[in-house]
Protein backbone atom coordinates (compact mmCIF):
# COMPACT_ATOMS: atom_id res chain seq x y z
CA UNK A 1 0.00 0.00 0.00
CA UNK A 2 2.70 2.50 0.85
CA UNK A 3 4.18 2.24 -2.64
CA UNK A 4 0.85 3.55 -3.96
CA UNK A 5 1.74 7.00 -2.69
CA UNK A 6 5.32 7.06 -3.81
CA UNK A 7 5.33 6.99 -7.59
CA UNK A 8 5.39 10.34 -9.32
CA UNK A 9 5.70 11.40 -12.94
CA UNK A 10 8.11 14.22 -13.74
CA UNK A 11 7.44 15.83 -17.09
CA UNK A 12 9.45 18.30 -19.11
CA UNK A 13 7.39 20.78 -21.12
CA UNK A 14 6.89 20.60 -24.88
CA UNK A 15 7.54 17.87 -27.40
CA UNK A 16 5.35 15.98 -29.83
CA UNK A 17 4.05 12.43 -30.27
CA UNK A 18 5.11 10.46 -33.34
CA UNK A 19 5.52 6.91 -34.62
CA UNK A 20 3.49 3.71 -34.31
CA UNK A 21 2.64 2.24 -30.93
CA UNK A 22 0.34 -0.44 -29.55
CA UNK A 23 -1.51 0.23 -26.30
CA UNK A 24 -2.20 -2.70 -23.93
CA UNK A 25 -5.30 -4.88 -24.08
CA UNK A 26 -8.78 -3.63 -23.30
CA UNK A 27 -9.51 -3.74 -19.58
CA UNK A 28 -13.26 -4.31 -19.86
CA UNK A 29 -12.81 -7.13 -22.36
CA UNK A 30 -9.95 -8.70 -20.36
CA UNK A 31 -12.17 -8.98 -17.27
CA UNK A 32 -14.99 -10.55 -19.23
CA UNK A 33 -12.66 -12.92 -21.08
CA UNK A 34 -11.51 -14.45 -17.79
CA UNK A 35 -14.99 -14.54 -16.24
CA UNK A 36 -16.75 -16.16 -19.18
CA UNK A 37 -13.91 -18.59 -19.98
CA UNK A 38 -13.92 -19.69 -16.35
CA UNK A 39 -17.59 -20.69 -16.42
CA UNK A 40 -17.47 -22.10 -19.96
CA UNK A 41 -17.16 -25.75 -20.85
CA UNK A 42 -13.71 -26.58 -22.19
CA UNK A 43 -10.54 -24.61 -22.62
CA UNK A 44 -10.22 -21.00 -23.75
CA UNK A 45 -7.12 -19.35 -25.10
CA UNK A 46 -6.94 -15.61 -24.54
CA UNK A 47 -4.38 -13.34 -26.19
CA UNK A 48 -3.83 -9.64 -25.66
CA UNK A 49 -4.95 -9.94 -22.01
CA UNK A 50 -4.25 -6.78 -20.04
CA UNK A 51 -1.68 -7.58 -17.35
CA UNK A 52 -2.78 -4.65 -15.21
CA UNK A 53 -3.67 -4.89 -11.54
CA UNK A 54 -7.44 -4.68 -12.18
CA UNK A 55 -7.74 -7.57 -14.61
CA UNK A 56 -5.16 -9.54 -12.61
CA UNK A 57 -7.46 -9.15 -9.58
CA UNK A 58 -10.21 -10.84 -11.58
CA UNK A 59 -7.83 -13.59 -12.67
CA UNK A 60 -6.67 -14.23 -9.11
CA UNK A 61 -10.27 -14.39 -7.88
CA UNK A 62 -11.10 -17.15 -10.35
CA UNK A 63 -8.04 -19.12 -9.29
CA UNK A 64 -9.34 -18.83 -5.72
CA UNK A 65 -12.67 -20.13 -7.01
CA UNK A 66 -10.96 -23.28 -8.26
CA UNK A 67 -10.33 -22.45 -11.92
CA UNK A 68 -6.99 -23.51 -13.40
CA UNK A 69 -5.48 -20.68 -15.43
CA UNK A 70 -2.06 -20.83 -17.10
CA UNK A 71 -0.28 -17.54 -17.63
CA UNK A 72 -0.36 -14.67 -18.15
CA UNK A 73 2.59 -14.98 -20.44
CA UNK A 74 2.99 -11.94 -22.69
CA UNK A 75 -0.78 -11.47 -22.61
CA UNK A 76 -1.56 -15.14 -23.29
CA UNK A 77 -3.80 -17.13 -20.96
CA UNK A 78 -5.09 -20.65 -21.04
CA UNK A 79 -8.25 -21.00 -18.96
CA UNK A 80 -9.59 -24.45 -18.16
CA UNK A 81 -13.29 -23.72 -17.90
CA UNK A 82 -15.24 -25.47 -15.15
CA UNK A 83 -18.72 -25.01 -16.62
CA UNK A 84 -21.57 -22.88 -15.32
CA UNK A 85 -21.80 -24.82 -12.05
CA UNK A 86 -18.17 -25.80 -11.50
CA UNK A 87 -16.87 -22.93 -9.36
CA UNK A 88 -15.79 -23.84 -5.83
CA UNK A 89 -15.91 -21.72 -2.66
CA UNK A 90 -12.86 -19.54 -2.05
CA UNK A 91 -11.02 -20.07 1.22
CA UNK A 92 -10.34 -16.36 1.74
CA UNK A 93 -12.05 -13.08 0.80
CA UNK A 94 -11.73 -12.14 -2.88
CA UNK A 95 -9.68 -8.95 -3.10
CA UNK A 96 -10.78 -6.79 -6.01
CA UNK A 97 -8.15 -4.12 -5.31
CA UNK A 98 -9.05 -0.87 -7.10
CA UNK A 99 -11.33 -2.54 -9.63
CA UNK A 100 -15.00 -1.60 -9.74
CA UNK A 101 -15.59 -3.84 -12.75
CA UNK A 102 -14.24 -6.91 -10.91
CA UNK A 103 -16.35 -6.23 -7.85
CA UNK A 104 -19.62 -5.38 -9.58
CA UNK A 105 -19.51 -8.13 -12.21
CA UNK A 106 -18.33 -10.80 -9.77
CA UNK A 107 -21.08 -9.85 -7.33
CA UNK A 108 -23.60 -10.71 -10.04
CA UNK A 109 -21.88 -13.91 -11.07
CA UNK A 110 -21.27 -15.14 -7.52
CA UNK A 111 -24.70 -14.25 -6.16
CA UNK A 112 -26.06 -17.26 -8.06
CA UNK A 113 -23.62 -19.81 -6.59
CA UNK A 114 -24.50 -22.46 -4.01
CA UNK A 115 -21.66 -21.19 -1.77
CA UNK A 116 -20.95 -17.95 0.10
CA UNK A 117 -18.31 -15.39 -0.93
CA UNK A 118 -16.80 -12.23 0.50
CA UNK A 119 -15.62 -9.43 -1.79
CA UNK A 120 -13.26 -6.72 -0.53
CA UNK A 121 -11.33 -3.87 -2.13
CA UNK A 122 -8.83 -1.07 -1.54
CA UNK A 123 -9.85 2.19 0.20
CA UNK A 124 -10.99 3.81 -3.09
CA UNK A 125 -13.13 0.83 -4.13
CA UNK A 126 -14.49 0.57 -0.59
CA UNK A 127 -15.92 4.09 -0.95
CA UNK A 128 -17.73 3.35 -4.24
CA UNK A 129 -21.49 2.69 -4.41
CA UNK A 130 -22.49 -0.98 -4.61
CA UNK A 131 -26.26 -0.75 -4.02
CA UNK A 132 -26.63 -0.16 -7.73
CA UNK A 133 -25.86 -3.88 -8.13
CA UNK A 134 -26.97 -5.34 -4.80
CA UNK A 135 -30.50 -3.94 -5.11
CA UNK A 136 -31.44 -5.53 -8.46
CA UNK A 137 -29.63 -8.72 -7.41
CA UNK A 138 -31.68 -8.81 -4.19
CA UNK A 139 -34.81 -8.56 -6.34
CA UNK A 140 -33.60 -11.70 -8.08
CA UNK A 141 -33.33 -13.45 -4.71
CA UNK A 142 -29.66 -12.85 -3.92
CA UNK A 143 -28.74 -12.29 -0.27
CA UNK A 144 -25.95 -9.74 -0.05
CA UNK A 145 -24.82 -7.66 2.90
CA UNK A 146 -23.03 -4.33 2.38
CA UNK A 147 -21.74 -1.74 4.86
CA UNK A 148 -24.33 0.70 6.22
CA UNK A 149 -23.29 3.07 3.42
CA UNK A 150 -23.98 0.46 0.73
CA UNK A 151 -20.29 -0.18 0.09
CA UNK A 152 -17.85 -3.11 0.29
CA UNK A 153 -17.02 -5.44 1.93
CA UNK A 154 -19.81 -7.43 0.31
CA UNK A 155 -20.94 -10.68 1.92
CA UNK A 156 -22.78 -12.95 -0.48
CA UNK A 157 -24.68 -15.80 1.10
CA UNK A 158 -25.15 -19.12 -0.67
CA UNK A 159 -27.97 -18.74 -3.19
CA UNK A 160 -31.27 -20.55 -2.77
CA UNK A 161 -32.16 -20.09 -6.41
CA UNK A 162 -32.40 -16.82 -8.31
CA UNK A 163 -35.36 -15.75 -10.42
CA UNK A 164 -35.25 -13.67 -13.55
CA UNK A 165 -36.34 -10.05 -13.36
CA UNK A 166 -37.00 -7.19 -15.73
CA UNK A 167 -34.83 -4.34 -14.51
CA UNK A 168 -34.95 -0.75 -15.75
CA UNK A 169 -31.54 0.67 -14.78
CA UNK A 170 -31.66 4.13 -13.18
CA UNK A 171 -28.08 4.85 -14.34
CA UNK A 172 -26.49 4.07 -17.69
CA UNK A 173 -23.93 1.58 -16.38
CA UNK A 174 -22.38 -1.35 -18.21
CA UNK A 175 -21.20 -2.74 -14.89
CA UNK A 176 -24.74 -2.87 -13.52
CA UNK A 177 -26.09 -4.31 -16.78
CA UNK A 178 -23.37 -6.97 -16.84
CA UNK A 179 -23.77 -7.84 -13.17
CA UNK A 180 -27.50 -8.47 -13.57
CA UNK A 181 -27.04 -10.41 -16.82
CA UNK A 182 -24.33 -12.61 -15.25
CA UNK A 183 -26.67 -13.38 -12.34
CA UNK A 184 -29.29 -14.07 -15.02
CA UNK A 185 -27.20 -17.00 -16.27
CA UNK A 186 -28.03 -18.68 -12.95
CA UNK A 187 -31.68 -17.54 -12.67
CA UNK A 188 -34.93 -19.32 -13.42
CA UNK A 189 -36.53 -17.89 -16.53
CA UNK A 190 -35.55 -14.71 -18.32
CA UNK A 191 -33.58 -11.77 -16.96
CA UNK A 192 -33.91 -8.48 -18.84
CA UNK A 193 -32.10 -5.19 -18.35
CA UNK A 194 -33.39 -1.96 -19.85
CA UNK A 195 -30.75 0.71 -20.46
CA UNK A 196 -31.59 4.41 -20.13
CA UNK A 197 -28.84 5.02 -22.75
CA UNK A 198 -26.53 2.66 -24.63
CA UNK A 199 -23.47 1.48 -22.68
CA UNK A 200 -20.54 -0.76 -23.61
CA UNK A 201 -21.84 -4.10 -24.82
CA UNK A 202 -18.80 -6.36 -24.38
CA UNK A 203 -20.66 -8.78 -22.09
CA UNK A 204 -23.41 -9.33 -24.64
CA UNK A 205 -20.93 -9.76 -27.50
CA UNK A 206 -18.76 -12.19 -25.59
CA UNK A 207 -21.70 -14.25 -24.31
CA UNK A 208 -22.79 -14.66 -27.92
CA UNK A 209 -19.24 -15.52 -28.99
CA UNK A 210 -19.33 -18.31 -26.36
CA UNK A 211 -22.60 -19.57 -27.83
CA UNK A 212 -24.91 -18.15 -25.16
CA UNK A 213 -28.11 -16.62 -26.59
CA UNK A 214 -28.67 -12.95 -25.77
CA UNK A 215 -31.81 -11.24 -27.05
CA UNK A 216 -31.89 -7.53 -27.62
CA UNK A 217 -34.91 -5.48 -28.50
CA UNK A 218 -33.95 -1.81 -28.57
CA UNK A 219 -32.81 -0.84 -25.09
CA UNK A 220 -33.92 -4.15 -23.57
CA UNK A 221 -31.31 -6.94 -23.28
CA UNK A 222 -32.32 -10.41 -22.09
CA UNK A 223 -30.73 -13.74 -21.22
CA UNK A 224 -32.40 -16.98 -20.18
CA UNK A 225 -30.74 -18.89 -17.34
CA UNK A 226 -29.18 -22.31 -17.51
CA UNK A 227 -27.63 -22.47 -20.99
CA UNK A 228 -24.03 -23.49 -21.57
CA UNK A 229 -21.03 -21.47 -22.66
CA UNK A 230 -18.44 -23.12 -24.89
CA UNK A 231 -14.80 -22.12 -24.50
CA UNK A 232 -12.91 -20.77 -27.48
CA UNK A 233 -10.29 -18.23 -28.45
CA UNK A 234 -10.45 -14.56 -27.59
CA UNK A 235 -8.07 -11.94 -29.00
CA UNK A 236 -8.43 -8.88 -26.79
CA UNK A 237 -8.04 -5.64 -28.79
CA UNK A 238 -6.07 -2.60 -27.61
CA UNK A 239 -7.94 -0.45 -25.09
CA UNK A 240 -9.46 2.69 -26.59
CA UNK A 241 -9.53 4.16 -23.08
CA UNK A 242 -5.72 3.84 -22.96
CA UNK A 243 -5.38 5.03 -26.56
CA UNK A 244 -7.38 8.13 -25.59
CA UNK A 245 -4.41 9.70 -23.76
CA UNK A 246 -2.39 9.47 -26.95
CA UNK A 247 -5.25 10.69 -29.16
CA UNK A 248 -5.43 13.78 -26.99
CA UNK A 249 -1.65 14.19 -26.64
CA UNK A 250 -1.09 13.99 -30.38
CA UNK A 251 -4.01 16.32 -31.09
CA UNK A 252 -2.72 19.07 -28.79
CA UNK A 253 1.04 18.87 -29.51
CA UNK A 254 2.15 20.69 -32.68
CA UNK A 255 3.62 18.51 -35.46
CA UNK A 256 2.46 15.26 -33.87
CA UNK A 257 1.69 12.35 -36.17
CA UNK A 258 0.96 9.10 -34.36
CA UNK A 259 -0.58 5.73 -35.22
CA UNK A 260 -2.08 3.52 -32.54
CA UNK A 261 -2.35 -0.02 -33.86
CA UNK A 262 -5.06 -2.59 -33.14
CA UNK A 263 -7.40 -0.48 -31.01
CA UNK A 264 -10.94 -1.67 -30.21
CA UNK A 265 -13.47 0.65 -31.85
CA UNK A 266 -16.71 -0.84 -30.61
CA UNK A 267 -19.30 1.91 -31.23
CA UNK A 268 -20.27 1.84 -27.54
CA UNK A 269 -16.71 2.99 -26.74
CA UNK A 270 -15.86 5.52 -29.44
CA UNK A 271 -17.48 8.58 -27.87
CA UNK A 272 -14.00 10.04 -27.35
CA UNK A 273 -13.31 9.99 -31.09
CA UNK A 274 -16.65 11.65 -31.85
CA UNK A 275 -16.07 14.32 -29.21
CA UNK A 276 -12.51 15.03 -30.37
CA UNK A 277 -13.60 15.19 -34.01
CA UNK A 278 -16.34 17.66 -33.07
CA UNK A 279 -13.56 19.74 -31.47
CA UNK A 280 -11.64 19.68 -34.75
CA UNK A 281 -9.29 16.72 -34.19
CA UNK A 282 -7.81 14.88 -37.15
CA UNK A 283 -8.30 11.19 -36.45
CA UNK A 284 -8.63 8.49 -39.11
CA UNK A 285 -9.64 4.89 -38.58
CA UNK A 286 -7.41 2.77 -40.79
CA UNK A 287 -7.50 -0.91 -41.67
CA UNK A 288 -10.86 -1.68 -40.00
CA UNK A 289 -11.29 -5.35 -39.12
CA UNK A 290 -13.04 -7.65 -36.67
CA UNK A 291 -11.45 -9.59 -33.85
CA UNK A 292 -13.53 -12.02 -31.74
CA UNK A 293 -16.80 -10.18 -32.32
CA UNK A 294 -15.28 -6.75 -31.63
CA UNK A 295 -14.43 -4.11 -34.27
CA UNK A 296 -10.77 -3.06 -34.36
CA UNK A 297 -8.81 -0.43 -36.32
CA UNK A 298 -5.52 1.45 -36.38
CA UNK A 299 -6.02 5.05 -35.26
CA UNK A 300 -4.04 7.72 -37.06
CA UNK A 301 -3.98 11.08 -35.31
CA UNK A 302 -2.30 14.34 -36.22
CA UNK A 303 -2.02 17.65 -34.39
CA UNK A 304 -4.97 19.96 -35.00
CA UNK A 305 -6.32 23.31 -33.84
CA UNK A 306 -9.10 22.38 -31.43
CA UNK A 307 -12.17 24.43 -30.55
CA UNK A 308 -14.33 24.24 -27.45
CA UNK A 309 -17.74 22.57 -27.75
CA UNK A 310 -20.81 21.71 -25.73
CA UNK A 311 -20.41 17.95 -25.35
CA UNK A 312 -23.56 16.14 -26.53
CA UNK A 313 -25.15 14.38 -23.51
CA UNK A 314 -25.84 11.20 -25.47
CA UNK A 315 -22.08 10.75 -25.91
CA UNK A 316 -21.40 10.82 -22.15
CA UNK A 317 -21.79 7.06 -21.44
CA UNK A 318 -19.84 6.27 -24.61
CA UNK A 319 -16.83 8.28 -23.40
CA UNK A 320 -17.29 7.96 -19.63
CA UNK A 321 -13.70 6.94 -18.85
CA UNK A 322 -12.14 9.45 -21.23
CA UNK A 323 -13.23 12.72 -19.62
CA UNK A 324 -10.00 13.30 -17.68
CA UNK A 325 -8.17 13.27 -21.03
CA UNK A 326 -10.93 15.20 -22.83
CA UNK A 327 -10.63 17.96 -20.18
CA UNK A 328 -6.95 18.30 -21.10
CA UNK A 329 -7.96 18.70 -24.75
CA UNK A 330 -10.58 21.28 -23.72
CA UNK A 331 -7.92 23.35 -21.94
CA UNK A 332 -6.01 23.45 -25.24
CA UNK A 333 -9.05 24.39 -27.33
CA UNK A 334 -10.16 27.83 -28.45
CA UNK A 335 -13.18 28.95 -26.39
CA UNK A 336 -15.39 27.21 -23.87
CA UNK A 337 -16.09 23.50 -23.46
CA UNK A 338 -19.12 22.51 -21.42
CA UNK A 339 -19.88 19.05 -20.09
CA UNK A 340 -23.19 18.31 -18.34
CA UNK A 341 -25.04 15.08 -17.49
CA UNK A 342 -21.88 13.36 -16.27
CA UNK A 343 -22.52 13.05 -12.50
CA UNK A 344 -21.21 9.47 -12.73
CA UNK A 345 -17.71 10.99 -12.87
CA UNK A 346 -18.07 11.73 -9.16
CA UNK A 347 -18.11 8.00 -8.25
CA UNK A 348 -15.20 6.71 -10.31
CA UNK A 349 -11.78 5.74 -8.91
CA UNK A 350 -11.75 9.30 -7.59
CA UNK A 351 -14.30 12.11 -7.85
CA UNK A 352 -13.04 12.95 -11.32
CA UNK A 353 -14.82 16.30 -11.51
CA UNK A 354 -13.06 17.44 -8.36
CA UNK A 355 -9.68 15.84 -9.07
CA UNK A 356 -9.55 17.26 -12.58
CA UNK A 357 -10.84 20.74 -11.65
CA UNK A 358 -8.24 21.05 -8.88
CA UNK A 359 -5.41 19.89 -11.11
CA UNK A 360 -6.45 22.11 -14.01
CA UNK A 361 -6.65 25.10 -11.69
CA UNK A 362 -3.22 24.28 -10.25
CA UNK A 363 -1.89 24.49 -13.81
CA UNK A 364 -3.51 27.88 -14.37
CA UNK A 365 -6.58 26.75 -16.35
CA UNK A 366 -9.98 28.35 -15.81
CA UNK A 367 -12.01 25.28 -14.91
CA UNK A 368 -15.33 25.44 -13.08
CA UNK A 369 -16.58 22.19 -11.57
CA UNK A 370 -20.35 21.67 -11.88
CA UNK A 371 -22.42 19.08 -9.98
CA UNK A 372 -22.68 16.99 -13.14
CA UNK A 373 -19.80 18.17 -15.28
CA UNK A 374 -17.32 20.94 -15.92
CA UNK A 375 -16.92 24.24 -17.72
CA UNK A 376 -13.44 24.81 -19.10
CA UNK A 377 -12.23 27.97 -20.75
CA UNK A 378 -9.55 26.94 -23.21
CA UNK A 379 -6.45 29.01 -23.82
CA UNK A 380 -5.56 29.42 -27.42
CA UNK A 381 -5.46 26.42 -29.73
CA UNK A 382 -1.76 27.27 -30.21
CA UNK A 383 0.95 28.14 -27.68
CA UNK A 384 1.05 27.05 -24.07
CA UNK A 385 -2.20 26.14 -22.36
CA UNK A 386 -0.78 25.16 -18.96
CA UNK A 387 1.68 26.69 -16.56
CA UNK A 388 4.02 24.29 -14.81
CA UNK A 389 3.32 22.94 -11.36
CA UNK A 390 2.41 20.02 -9.19
CA UNK A 391 -0.81 18.01 -9.53
CA UNK A 392 -2.21 15.23 -7.34
CA UNK A 393 -3.90 12.39 -9.22
CA UNK A 394 -5.75 11.35 -6.04
CA UNK A 395 -4.65 7.80 -6.77
CA UNK A 396 -6.74 7.79 -9.95
CA UNK A 397 -4.96 6.16 -12.89
CA UNK A 398 -6.80 8.11 -15.57
CA UNK A 399 -6.29 11.46 -13.86
CA UNK A 400 -2.56 10.75 -13.62
CA UNK A 401 -2.23 9.76 -17.28
CA UNK A 402 -4.30 12.73 -18.47
CA UNK A 403 -2.18 15.29 -16.61
CA UNK A 404 1.01 13.73 -17.96
CA UNK A 405 -0.17 14.67 -21.48
CA UNK A 406 -0.72 18.29 -20.39
CA UNK A 407 3.08 18.72 -20.34
CA UNK A 408 3.06 18.72 -24.14
CA UNK A 409 1.48 22.19 -23.98
CA UNK A 410 2.97 23.51 -20.74
CA UNK A 411 5.37 26.40 -20.26
CA UNK A 412 7.33 24.72 -17.44
CA UNK A 413 7.79 21.23 -15.91
CA UNK A 414 4.79 19.40 -14.44
CA UNK A 415 4.92 16.88 -11.62
CA UNK A 416 2.04 14.40 -11.21
CA UNK A 417 1.88 12.79 -7.77
CA UNK A 418 0.33 9.54 -6.56
CA UNK A 419 0.67 7.62 -9.83
CA UNK A 420 1.10 3.99 -8.74
CA UNK A 421 -2.46 3.10 -9.74
CA UNK A 422 -1.61 3.74 -13.40
CA UNK A 423 -0.62 0.09 -13.19
CA UNK A 424 -4.28 -0.89 -12.72
CA UNK A 425 -5.05 -0.25 -16.39
CA UNK A 426 -1.84 0.68 -18.21
CA UNK A 427 1.37 -1.00 -17.10
CA UNK A 428 4.40 0.65 -18.75
CA UNK A 429 2.46 3.82 -19.59
CA UNK A 430 5.46 6.04 -18.94
CA UNK A 431 7.75 3.89 -21.09
CA UNK A 432 5.32 3.83 -24.01
CA UNK A 433 4.60 7.55 -23.75
CA UNK A 434 8.36 8.24 -23.69
CA UNK A 435 8.77 6.07 -26.79
CA UNK A 436 6.17 8.24 -28.57
CA UNK A 437 7.95 11.45 -27.50
CA UNK A 438 6.60 12.55 -24.11
CA UNK A 439 9.41 13.67 -21.81
CA UNK A 440 8.35 11.66 -18.79
CA UNK A 441 10.38 10.15 -15.98
CA UNK A 442 9.07 7.95 -13.17
CA UNK A 443 10.34 8.76 -9.69
CA UNK A 444 9.82 6.93 -6.42
CA UNK A 445 9.92 9.38 -3.54
C1 LIG B 1 -16.95 -0.61 -17.25
C2 LIG B 1 -18.04 0.22 -17.22
C3 LIG B 1 -17.93 1.65 -16.85
C4 LIG B 1 -16.50 2.16 -16.90
C5 LIG B 1 -15.55 1.20 -16.25
C6 LIG B 1 -15.58 -0.14 -16.95
C7 LIG B 1 -17.14 -2.02 -17.62
O1 LIG B 1 -18.40 1.81 -15.52
O2 LIG B 1 -16.41 3.42 -16.30
O3 LIG B 1 -14.24 1.70 -16.30
O4 LIG B 1 -16.14 -2.71 -17.93
O5 LIG B 1 -18.30 -2.47 -17.64
P1 LIG B 1 -19.96 2.08 -15.18
O6 LIG B 1 -20.72 0.85 -15.47
O7 LIG B 1 -19.97 2.42 -13.71
O8 LIG B 1 -20.36 3.23 -16.05
TrEMBL record:
Localization annotation: Cytoplasm
EC number: 2.5.1.19
Coarse class of the protein's main subcellular location: cytoplasm
Coiled coil spans: none
Keyword Thylakoid (UniProt): no
Alphabetic keyword roster: Amino-acid biosynthesis, Aromatic amino acid biosynthesis, Cytoplasm, Transferase
Active-site residues per Swiss-Prot or TrEMBL entry: 321 (proton acceptor)
Keyword tRNA processing found: no
Binding site for phosphoenolpyruvate: 27, 100, 128, 175, 352, 398
Pathway membership: Metabolic intermediate biosynthesis; chorismate biosynthesis; chorismate from D-erythrose 4-phosphate and phosphoenolpyruvate: step 6/7
Reactions catalysed, as given in the entry: 3-phosphoshikimate + phosphoenolpyruvate = 5-O-(1-carboxyvinyl)-3-phosphoshikimate + phosphate
One Gene Ontology MF term: 3-phosphoshikimate 1-carboxyvinyltransferase activity
Domain Enolpyruvate transferase: 13-430
Catalytic class of the enzyme: transferase
Domain of life according to the entry: Bacteria
Annotated residues for binding of 3-phosphoshikimate: 27-28, 32, 173, 175, 321, 348
Subunit structure of this chain's protein: Monomer.
Family: Belongs to the EPSP synthase family.
NCBIfam families: aroA
Role, per record: Catalyzes the transfer of the enolpyruvyl moiety of phosphoenolpyruvate (PEP) to the 5-hydroxyl of shikimate-3-phosphate (S3P) to produce enolpyruvyl shikimate-3-phosphate and inorganic phosphate.
PANTHER family, sorted: AROM/DEHYDROQUINATE SYNTHASE (PTHR21090), PENTAFUNCTIONAL AROM POLYPEPTIDE (PTHR21090:SF5)
This protein's name: 3-phosphoshikimate 1-carboxyvinyltransferase
Species per Swiss-Prot/TrEMBL record: Thiorhodovibrio winogradskyi
